[in-house]
């Protein structure tokens, strides 16, 4: 998993509440347990004018010119600005996979669905909760200024606008440690690899039958 310390990127505004995981990545595309390859089908039903099929070449599909991610000013966005309850619905981990594969590194919203919020940290995405009035201000600034970028500092727990205005956000210390060091659940476990090996060595001596040896 990619570590996250600081990031600066173009902001894309997704001005709707209750964006669920089926909207983020529709169920017909969940045919792989790999974490990559889902980006072309991110927000599929909103991005394209036809009905997408698995393994279809998305480069040849008709795009919806009204969808925010199809607009030239947002095509290189890596920060997604959203409304309340982003990531609700099912628990599919493919949702953060698709967002990360598309190129997003940060999602800012007034609130997130719990499972989606936790899955983001396990996949190198930083979900940031900011007050609703602050998110509303950011929506206005993004729409008024083409190329609008935000700077995010996970160590300092801050979001900084182009004018220098800074907003603080909260993040659990454990999740922050994992993201700063690029650790998913397996990576966290491997931090204690020496202790695990030492314990196994001691148990192999005191209870050899657990390891296939005769008593």
From TrEMBL:
Domain Aconitase A/isopropylmalate dehydratase small subunit swivel: 1-132
EC number: 4.2.1.33
Record field: catalytic activity: (2R,3S)-3-isopropylmalate = (2S)-2-isopropylmalate
A molecular function (GO) term: 3-isopropylmalate dehydratase activity
Annotated InterPro entries: 3-IsopropMal_deHydase_ssu, Aconitase/3IPM_dehydase_swvl, AconitaseA/IPMdHydase_ssu_swvl, IPMI_Swivel, LeuD
Annotated metabolic or biological route of this protein: Amino-acid biosynthesis; L-leucine biosynthesis; L-leucine from 3-methyl-2-oxobutanoate: step 2/4
Keyword Disulfide bond: no
Annotated Pfam families: Aconitase_C (PF00694)
Keywords annotated in UniProt: Amino-acid biosynthesis, Branched-chain amino acid biosynthesis, Leucine biosynthesis, Lyase
Domain of life from the UniProt record: Bacteria
PANTHER family: 3-ISOPROPYLMALATE DEHYDRATASE SMALL SUBUNIT, 3-ISOPROPYLMALATE DEHYDRATASE SMALL SUBUNIT 2-RELATED-RELATED
Subunit and partners: Heterodimer of LeuC and LeuD.
Function: Catalyzes the isomerization between 2-isopropylmalate and 3-isopropylmalate, via the formation of 2-isopropylmaleate.
Family: Belongs to the LeuD family. LeuD type 1 subfamily.
Protein name (record): 3-isopropylmalate dehydratase small subunit
Organism: Marinobacter metalliresistant
């Amino acid at each position: 998993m990619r570590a996250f310390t600081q990031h600066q990127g173009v902001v894309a505004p997704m001005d709707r509440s209750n964006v669920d995981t089926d909207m983020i990545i529709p169920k017909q595309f969940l045919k792989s347990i790999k974490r990559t390859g889902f980006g072309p089908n991110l927000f599929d039903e909103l991005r394209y004018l036809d009905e997408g099929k698995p393994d279809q070449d998305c480069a040849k599909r008709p795009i919806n010119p009204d969808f925010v991610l199809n607009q030239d000013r947002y095509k290189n966005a890596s920060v997604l600005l959203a409304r309340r309850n982003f990531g609700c619905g099912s628990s599919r981990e493919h949702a953060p996979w698709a967002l990360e594969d598309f190129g997003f590194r940060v999602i800012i919203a007034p609130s997130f669905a719990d499972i989606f919020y936790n899955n983001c940290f396990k996949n190198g995405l930083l979900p940031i909760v900011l007050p609703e009035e602050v998110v509303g201000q950011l929506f206005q600034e993004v729409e008024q200024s083409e190329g609008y970028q935000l700077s995010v500092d996970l160590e300092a727990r801050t979001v900084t606008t182009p004018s220098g205005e800074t907003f603080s956000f909260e993040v659990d210390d454990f999740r922050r440690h994992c993201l700063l060091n690029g650790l998913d659940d397996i990576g966290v476990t491997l931090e204690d690899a020496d202790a695990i090996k030492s314990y196994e060595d001691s148990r192999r001596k005191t209870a050899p039958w657990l390891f296939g040896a005769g008593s």
